[in-house]
Design a protein that fits this description.
The chain has about 700 residues and is of the alpha/beta class. The longest helix is centred in the last third of the chain and has 27 residues, at about 605-630.
Length: about 700
Amino acid sequence: MSAVVENIKTLSASDLDRPAIRCGDTVLGYHDLWQSIEKLSRRLNAGSGVVIATDIINPVAWIVADLCLIQCQSISIPLPPFFSPAQKSHALKSAGAAWLLTDQTNNVCDESQIDVGQGLVLIAQQQNHVSHHAGTAKITYTSGTTGTPKGVCLSQSAMETVTWSLLDTLGNDVARRFGGVLPLPVLLENIGGLYAAMLAGGCYYARPPIPSTGFAATATFLFDNAITSCILVPELLQGLLQQLENQPRSLPDMKYIAVGGSKVSPALLERAVKLDLPVYQGYGLSESASVSCLNRPGENRIGSVGKPLPHIKISCSWEGEILLKDPMFLGYTDDDPSPRLYATGDLGHLDKDGYLIITGRKKNVLINSFGRNISPEWPESQLLAEPAIDQVLVVGDARPFLAALIVSTENDRVINQTIEKTNETLPDYAQIQGWKRVSAFTIANNMLTGTGRPKRDVITKRYLSLTETIFNTEITMEPFFNRLERETLPEREAFMQIPLLGDALLGNISKETYMAYLVQAYHHVKHTTPLLMSCGSRLPSSKEWLREAVAEYIEEELGHQEWILSDITHCGGDGETIRHSTPNPATEMMVAYAYDSIARKNPVSFFGMVYVLEGTSINLATPCAEAIGKTLGLSNNCFSYLSSHGSLDLEHMDFFEKLMNRITDAEDQEAIIYMAKRMFGLFGAVFQSLPHNHGLTNAA
């Protein structure tokens, strides 16, 4: 018999009046709860290893059924309420469920249904037999990163090991009055809430089957019942904090609020501290039986997910992937047993004090602020099946819903209709609730890989400001660098459409064209240091910090024009002749415009030119050098300028972004944006002035 059920049985005999379950006006003492378990066990008459799924709305009935299946040593499959019908069907089939125990019958009875009392019926399932790992007591299905999530097989001893570990770490008093806010079929609530309360001899407070909706109702539930602990996801925590901030109300009995399931903003945790709320972030997976790490009183480090619990050992691979030694799960349904060392797919590290820091995800899995796992490729594939959608990227990590960046030639009405149609095939948490139209993702603009896959990090960073407007996130001030990227997008896209640039990325240019480019590059790069000096000399004393940055740029840029002359010489040209040559009119106009803007308008405007030249270099320099060198058979010493500036300007751009975000003066910001817009056109004219037969390669 399990420790949970054994403790209920013991307390039912020794402490008849101690409350075990409360739900509205319904109260079950430990004696009543044990009697209900025994009664349902006799009615079910289920043998060991029988697979029974539960789809029960009434929380008291759900609890009795779950504990009853433990008592019968059956294999239970809790079906989450947020699953779509298709996902529920998949779970029943993949786990080989023989029966479905439910309180949802629509008053329709037939020979396949057996009334087992307490408002529950047992419905026979026509599923093929599935062999399960020895010792399986529960098969839990997460929200699933796709439409067909895997079932995680857990033993009762593994689940109770985690529960004991939680109680050993936090103490039994924390679970004296546990408030069930999350759905019971969610493994974290099941183990960290219900089982912890039962093992601690506490009372589990369940919310009524159809509770009042909204965060105010959650705050009232916790306050009215003097709850001592509960588990929340970030979205629920944020709503609770808003309620407590807007009303003169506290939760004086609360001892511990666990929050997890998704990224938790440090700012959210700081807000909780100001309200004297005992909120602690944790971390775990279904494969680790819900909880692996936990912050706790006296050992709480905001920004971490806490220290590993006593029962688990955690390490990190050389790539930074978090590894669990001897994970708690037995394996997946119809799959091999679990490995001794389980790779979580999460990236992070243990700090010097043993706190686990999560830094990201190895795969493209989004975890929304309700703790649901969604692979973006799932809704993306559904949308791309529709003719109206040319390209799409779904975003929504740590957000309450999903949104999409869409490339389409159709009008907004057609796109909205397409999204509505697609959403009908998806569960609520995987539906697209907002969207924005964006320019095409291409190799030329660095948003596609060579095989045509979207570069998610590049795209999400490029359109960060745009996606913020979809989620309507409160932003006190948009970082200026984000605004600069957003407001120069049309000019940047037009620049990247220049045929020569696309051909250069493919190596489809002649040696004559490459040499012509180097000549014009020399004629504008030789002005970089003088332009920086001109800019720095005209900055007012109030911008001394910016003058220091200009000095750093000068130190970095000195002599780069000589690299270009060296490349010309190695390509067979005469570097000294080029030194004394005359630039093309387009190059001369671009340089002259920069000097004029610094001297006559605003010296800070020069950073608009820096943004264009370094941003372009990041996207084009290295891949163009590699492609051209391969096509023309030129040695590496013909590309010292391009090759060095690809990686060099990547470092510069990080410095540049931080620098731009310090510029708060409205006139300076407008001057930089104006210069960047004009410079995309002027720099584009330089490339258009070069000799180039589109589509023809003249290999050397």
